[in-house]
Amino acid sequence: MRRAYRSVPIRGEKPIASIGTRAPRPESGIQDTDQPGAGRVGSDRERGCLRDLALVAGGNGFGLLPMVPARYHTAMLDLRFVHEFDCSEETFWTHLFLDDRFNEWLYKERLGFSDWKVVERQDTERGVRRVVDVAPPVGDLPGPLKRLIGDNVRYRERDEYDAVRRHCRVEVVPGTMADKVTVRGEITCLKLGEGRCRRVFTGHVEARVFGVGSLLEKRIASELERSYEAGARFTSEYVRNNGLSP
Fold it and tell me: What is the Cα–Cα distance from 109 to 192, expressed in whole angstroms?
């Protein structure tokens, strides 16, 4: 089975989010075949996290067995977020997504991120390459995840916008466990009519962390959905208040 995490709002209604099914990869050992060493529990923090899980599993809703087997399944969690805006495709790319000042305002002033800064940007005729250093709000985490991740969460977002194809590839590289967590996706913007467009993000999350991978995937997906939903609301507000609608 293959899991899918979707958020597809209908105009005038609340967005709908659901987790479907996903197809597991063939069973693997502790050594992950895609990333050498990715399946190992190497650090003291990860080993401590598993000890915590062994103590609390079964009574906290994690759905984990008290004894974590030496062999386990890994699979990706698919994502799809869809939002509509009262502006043109050109406005979305030029004045919203690729506007660094707008994004700094959006993430820091509206979404509560403690930091959002561009550390590298290259503008060419074919598009834009941008690397952003980000410090998101952590919020309340289950004990095992908090011990694994810590309090100071940072990541780097790598954007590659293709001006010819009008789409952007996105990769999120976490500050910790970068070899064990993969978040990749693609953003497209479709014309709906005169002065309206639909942004679509499709991607996947994979956490190759022994014992807590599925829990971490769901948390990342949940945070991404929250940011995209809140960001869409504030983006619509910004479009109206700054004369970006036709």
Answer: 29
